Amino acid sequence: ITKDPELTKLAQTYIKERLHPRSPRRYYFDPYAAITIDPATMEHFPDYNLFILYGLSCSPALEALPLIQRQFSDDFCLWSPIVSPCTTHQLIGVKFIQERQCDTLVAANELEVALLEDIERQLTIDPRMGDVYIQRAMMLMISGAYDTIKPVWIQRILDQQLADGSWTNFDPLFPVGGDRFFGFSYFFLDIREPKANFHTTAQAIYLMALSVASYSDMRQN
Known about the structure:
By secondary structure, the chain is mostly helical. It contains nine helices and three strands. The chain has helices at residues 5-18, 47-57, 60-63, 66-70, 86-100, 105-125, 131-142, 151-159, 198-220; strands at 171-177, 180-184, 189-192. It has a three-stranded antiparallel sheet, with no helix packed on it. The protein starts with a helix and ends with a helix.
């Protein structure tokens, strides 16, 4: 989005050096990748990975799996409605289904409405800053749900940026000595030093790039 040379180089290095030529994850970068999808080799994949991979590939073999069909339900993530990134990952799969125009497009469109409402609710009732919080705001932005995004959510994310420009998957509440803080980690309370997290930082950068791009589009229109 930003055409930043360092980010572009990082992505190209990953594709060239870290991604196996026959890996199904090549669908992330090439929607026309001719890579065979064999569900039997993916039993160790988390539920959401399979759903996202189905959205990327539109594979009939994956579509036939009961696990994929269950993820078209808006109550699939009710087992953990607050702390889990289940809903956001479900929506990521939906966005790829829409982009690739899979056979399940109608069901995906209906599911998106419910997921966006759930993500907005989660941002409202769960104030803990970290990876999941940023991911929720990011998915609202990706989905074009600009009217539901509160400026305070974006400001809170900006306020949590570390001095080196990164973000941490830890919400510090108060200092306890040295560089350590008492605060919220992913699932529980913890004492630690806020440090850069690659996954969290990548999502925050993507969110900010989307924000700038959407603002530019609105000004032009």
